[in-house]
Amino acid sequence: MIMVSSCLAGLEVRYNGTHCLHDKLKQLVDNKQAITVCPELMGGLPTPREPAEIIEGDGYDVLNGAAIIKDRSGVDVTAAYMEGAVRTLELAQQLQATLVVLKENSPSCGSSHIYNGKFVGEKIAGNGITAALLKKHGFNVISEDDFMQMLHEL
């Protein structure tokens, strides 16, 4: 089973109430070959919500207690993001997910890039907390861009 960020399947769950529809990923969900997941909602965060970024590190640093996640208003939302990551991991383990396609740049889902924690729109190399936790447990986590590249190589 493949897990896909809900926003990539067209569900309006992003921080600003929008989606990032990728037709191929939605097709997998529609054909019951993939299941949607939104770690932020699973952690109890609402839609819409303040945008959030990892401060002073990436998802691995958050898991190790060396960084936190704050929203743009300065509220520490680390606990909600951690809860969502743990619930996503539990679901991936139950489903025995063979691939996890997550939304790039997200503090939860970024699998190679996230925002720099200064709310200025600048991206840095790094993983979101959910991507980091899944990778730490051996799951194959890629971005929507990596997924499209993979399709082109087939």
Describe, in plain words, how this protein is organized in 3D.
The mean pLDDT is 97. The chain has helices at 23-30, 39-42, 59-63, 78-95, 129-136, 144-153, and strands at 2-5, 34-37, 52-55, 68-71, 99-102, 113-115, 123-125, 141-143. Strand 6 (113-115) and strand 7 form a beta hairpin. The protein is 34% helix and 19% strand. A four-stranded parallel sheet has the order 2-1-5-8. A two-stranded antiparallel ribbon has the order 3-4. The protein has 154 residues and is α/β, with parallel strands linked by helices. It is built from six helices and eight strands. The chain is globular. Helix 4 (78-95) packs across helix 5.
SSE succession: EHEHEHEHEEEHEH
Strand content: 15-25%
Alpha-beta classification: alpha/beta
Q: How far do the termini sit from each other?
A: 19 Å
Q: Note the overall shape.
A: globular
Mean pLDDT, to the nearest integer, reads 97
Number of strands: 8
* Cα Rg: 14 Å
Task: Supply the number of helical segments.
Answer: 6
- Summarize the main sheet: 4 strands, parallel
Which regions are unreliable across 5 or more consecutive residues at pLDDT < 50?
none
Helix coverage percent? 25-40%
Strand order of the largest sheet: 2-1-5-8
